[in-house]
Description:
Layout: E1 4-8, H1 13-24, E2 28-33, H2 36-48, E3 53-58, H3 67-75, E4 81-85, H4 93-98, H5 103-128, E5 132-136, H6 149-170, E6 175-181, H7 201-213, E7 218-221, H8 224-234, H9 237-240
Parallel strand pairs: 1-2, 1-4, 2-3, 4-5, 5-6, 6-7
The chain binds NADP nicotinamide-adenine-dinucleotide phosphate.
Residues 9, 11-14, 33-35, 59-62, 86-89, 109-110, 113, 136, 138, 181, 183-184, 186-189 line the site of NADP nicotinamide-adenine-dinucleotide phosphate.
Amino acid sequence: MSDTWIILGATSSIARTTARRLAENGATLLLAGRDMVDLEATAADAKARGATAAEAVAFDARDPATFQPILDRAAKEDGTLNCAVFVGSMPEQSEIDANPALLDGVITDSFTGPAGFLQRLAPMMEERCSGTIIGLSSVAGDRGRLGNYVYGGAKSGFTTYLSGLRNRLARSGVHVVTVKPGPVDTAMTWGLDALPFMTTPEKVTDDILKAARKKKNVVYTAGIWRLVMLVIRAVPEPIFKKMKI
Length: 245
Ligand SMILES: NC(=O)c1ccc[n+]([C@@H]2O[C@H](COP(=O)([O-])OP(=O)(O)OC[C@H]3O[C@@H](n4cnc5c(N)ncnc54)[C@H](OP(=O)(O)O)[C@@H]3O)[C@@H](O)[C@H]2O)c1
């Protein structure tokens, strides 16, 4: 019996490298997202790499009607059920400042949509008393900054949500890993000014899967960001509000 992984936001660059690794380990993959053509291609690739099965399923974080069909499909799989969440969107802060209507979408994509799905999945995992949830949050959620405080606010909410979910599900033997990447070389950061300690989707995948295996609760990737954010969080507010970071 193979492990089943629901991958939300399976068109993400980091999801793609993670799906590849899970496929090589013989997992069954439910690849969830908005672009069915892209997802079908990833499913074909996963099968070629050794996945027990791989299927594209429609998911839109802004449309809760897409959630239940995925849960119904997952319920048909025996054994351990897992979920990895790669959904998120990060328009420039200046774009949101100019058009406040964009705010709801950012919060839904990066926080309330994924949380709404996990909230419905949680009872199924509790019933099976097994499984892992991996949630991609961000270092941006550790402190609100001038440059991306709406995205940061959404990720902060998602981090807090995952912390509570971990607390709840630990009682049933289900583990929740919160992942806090710094900048990663993906579509999300394409075209932005040079970012410090940039890492690759492959390295993030390595860190995620290692953290899941070792049952880590919170992982920073690249690891240096744990220290950087410790310092950034320690800056007193009167000084922080004058900084441009
Ligand atoms: N790249 C970084 O520097 C960085 C740093 C910290 C955290 N992260 C987080 O890591 C995760 C993966 O991001 P990535 O870097 O791999 O970027 P990415 O390639 O842009 O992936 C973002 C994913 O979110 C999906 N998505 C956005 N809105 C959605 C919606 N309403 N419904 C369904 N799917 C939606 C996108 O789907 P479409 O293909 O359909 O647009 C895409 O699959 C995200 O949660 C991101 O916030 C990234």
